[in-house]
Amino acid sequence: MLRTEIMSAAGGPFLAIGTVMPFGAVPAGLLLGAFVLGLLTALALMALILPAVRRRMVAAPKVAASAPTADPPPACLGPAIGAAVRAGELQLHYQPKLDCRTSKVCGAEALSRWTLPDGTRLQPEEFVTLAETAGGIADLTLWGVERTLEDSCKPANGALGGPIFVNLSGKLITPEFAVRLIELVGDQTRRIGFEITETAVLENPEQALECLFALRDAGLALAIDDYGAGLSSLSYLKQIPASELKIDRKFIQGMTRSNRDPLIVRSTIDLCHGLGMTVTAEGVEDAMTASLLGVMGCDTIQGYFVSAAVPIEDLLRFVEEHPGKELRVPQIRKKAGVMRPEQGRI
Ligand code: G
Ligand code: MN
Q1: 13, 51, 297, 299: most buried, per Cβ within 10 A?
Q2: Whether residues 146 and 25 fall in one domain
Q3: Model pTM?
Q4: Do 163 and 39 belong together in one domain?
Q5: Same domain, 28 and 158
Q6: Is 95 contained in some domain?
Q7: Residue 77: inside a domain, yes or no?
């Protein structure tokens, strides 16, 4: 930066005399004069520029200090999550998904919550990210899978209408972890599926795809989560062996207010159907959006309009109270409205 500023401010003549004209071609006096003039110009420029540069150098740490720090999370967090799992401080809640055609519940997503002994409720978004960096994400996920398998036995045969999906962190999309998951699930592959974000395969696509194919070949359903939230690549969309795609709520929530979001959603639905995948709209919060999605051919909706994530007992009651046959989508809100939005994810 400094060099460029001096060069452009010195306007070439200073530099050009020394570089373009051969020494022998100019009288010594002229050369000396030019040299002295150049030196003075350079000194004057330095005097002008240096304070600004110094100001910038002093200002830099202040900017860095106010920006979010990339400090590693406390190392104790990994073991703490493991201990919290064993101490029963984590709960798993389930957010139902609704089939747009039948208005029946057709599965759910498992979302975790961590309540400390003093009642403090930790934001799942925070502890999941911390567990991914400080350790503990594998413990948390294995616990979530075990709990999901236990709870998915509770609804009467087929009442849930589809598998419960567990979020699988990008850090765990390895062939080794796939083996552990497949062992843990055993022959209960119809009860559980995994949600993965599309960007999770970006870091090491070969290894990630090997893992995903192993899970798919073992009979486990895969869903691409938060589609459109990151840098989506059609090339990965083609390669990931997922049977379902979940459109990120940032496109869904603007559907009735913007011109572009419904077009994006509509074309994503068509694209996925062309690829043989089903589509779930995430974050559906109102009847109008739900209806619009139904008209667009979306397969499934999920969001506070249907229900927040709730404990398994409440989910079972919800399924019982909404057998679905005569239930038209706009009627659901009245009954689902009593459920308070909960936050959580595995
Ligand atoms: O990334 P993923 O889709 O797994 O995120 C699930 C998160 O979305 C949970 O934290 C849950 O609380 C939140 N969530 C679920 N339904 C809705 C909704 O209708 N609106 C909003 N704003 N958030 C939702
Ligand atoms: Mn998810």
Answers
A1: 299
A2: no
A3: 0.75
A4: no
A5: no
A6: yes
A7: no
For ligand 1, the distance from its centroid to the CA atom of residue 250, given in whole angstroms, is 10
Residue 242, both tokens: 């997922």
Summarize pLDDT for 79-130 with one digit per residue, the tens.
Answer: 788 888 888 889 999 999 999 999 999 999 999 998 888 888 886 787 888 8
Identify whether residues 227 and 277 lie together within a single domain: yes
Do residues 193 and 245 both lie within one domain?
Answer: yes
Say which residue the tokens 């589609």 belong to: 227
Q: Tens digits of per-residue pLDDT, 216-271?
A: 999 999 999 999 988 777 888 889 999 999 999 999 999 999 999 999 999 999 99
The residue nearest atom 18 of ligand 1, judged by CA position, is 283
* pLDDT tens track for 311-322: 999 999 999 887
| Cα within 13 Å of Cα(253), Cβ side | 9
What number is the average pLDDT over the span 267-276?
96
Q: Report pLDDT digits (tens) over 20-35.
A: 333 333 455 444 444 4
Say if residue 99 is in the same domain as residue 18.
no
Domain extent at residue 277: 91-336
**Residue in 113, 280, 315, 345 to alter for ligand 1 test, most ligand atoms within 8 A of Cβ:** 345
- Residue 319 covered by a domain: yes
- Residue 46 in domain: yes
> How far apart, in Å, are the Cα atoms of 217 and each of 205, 211, 224, 272, 307?
18, 10, 17, 21, 32
Residue nearest (by alpha carbon) to ligand 1 atom 15: 303
Q: Which residues line ligand 1 (CB under 6 A)?
A: 95, 111, 167, 225-226, 249, 282-283, 285, 303-304, 343-345
288: Cα within 13 Å, side-chain hemisphere: 6
Ligand (nearest to CA of 94) = 1
Residue located nearest, by CA, to atom 20 of ligand 1: 283
Cβ proximity of 168 and 194 under 8 Å? yes
Nearest-atom index, ligand 1, CA of 302? 16
